[in-house]
Amino acid sequence: MRRFKVFKSLVTDSLDTITTGSKRYHLWMGLLTIIMLAGMYCYSIQLDEGLSVTGMTDRVSWGLYISNFTFLVGVAAAAVMLVMPTYILKDIDFKQAVLIGEGLAVAALIMCLAFVIADMGGPAVLWHMIPGIGVFNFPDSMLTWDVIVLNGYLFLNISIPFYILFRHYQGKDSNPKVYIPGAILSVFWAVAIHLVTAFLYQGLQARPFWNNALLGPRFLASAFAAGPALIILVLGIIKSFSSFKVKDETIKKIAMIVTVAAQINLIMLISELFKEFYAPTHHSESAFYLFFGLHGKTALLPWIWTSISLNVLAVVMLTFGRFRNNFKTLYFCCFILFVAIWIEKGFGLIVPGFIPGPYGKIAEYTPTGIEIGVTLGIWALGAFVFTILAKTAIGIETGEMRYGKKTS
């Protein structure tokens, strides 16, 4: 009964915390709300008229939605790079950032699920994915494995931080025997969500662009570069606009993780390019379309070469300590690296897999305004959820929110 009373108090105090703040905070939340409403309007048009309002066709059946889903799976998995050193290796420097990282993972997973729902056309078809009722096709379908690992990882990233924050809200220390087993499990689960997503693409024999043994490891390398890069940017914003002060040493350690992962990702990219272009076959046509165009079709050229340029620039700058340890250049490098990997794992991975088609037909894909509106709305939803989670967690960790203490 007491725990229920504490939980009720936590919910009340959290609502007070997230509804109060500076003028900039309210402007930020208001902007996100407007973007979400615009996204909902675009989604209502899609629900009414179907997926025909998107740029997807029977030739290119995955577009902006699945591109963002694939990228965000990596962002969610990146939380493990903070969980492992904090909970398992007992690195005190990561302790300040781990709850922020897990909150980011929760927001990313919610966006992942939202993009899947958007790509399916609407929530009315979700019953197909319910075991025993729909056509779940477990364990043969890789998609069913993806559903399991994503929801399982979402549960882990909600339950572990909730337990820790619930204890801290009461002014008590969390018991390692309770959360350490879950933290260890989440390390393996984070790897699984990205590998299973990669296997989902690798298992499609008719798409030779994805039949690459490096796809799974490269998914992990790019995830462990883009995810922590976003965490650094978020920590920088929190450090500037809140009372939650993150140590410089914490950010520098995360920057080293980003640097190593980005270097490995770039090496794997070079390996893939060598495989595709040194001894090309007809299976290399998708790569030729992506990097050089094919039969006059060049829609993705500006995207992929922008991505590669930003990727190389970020890796070169991060490699040198004087740039990496200077926070202004670090934030710049993290931003361009995040954008580069978003392009590379989005348009650069998903769309070329469908071009050319099995019969050599080239049908290019361009997202419509409806798709872009829905996509922006889902990203705004993720930012909204993360802001709420982060503001609550910061309030508890700084002692501003305590059971029995009135929040100002």
TrEMBL record:
Topology class, membrane: Multi-pass membrane protein
Cellular compartment(s): Cell membrane
Keyword Cytoplasm: no
UniProt keyword list: Cell membrane, Membrane, Transmembrane, Transmembrane helix
Annotated transmembrane regions: 27-46, 66-85, 97-118, 147-166, 178-201, 221-242, 254-274, 300-318, 330-355, 375-396
GO CC terms: plasma membrane
The keyword Disulfide bond appears for this protein: no
Chief site of localization: membrane
Family to which the UniProt record says this protein belongs: Belongs to the NrfD family.
Protein name per the record: Polysulfide reductase
Organism: Spongiivirga citrea
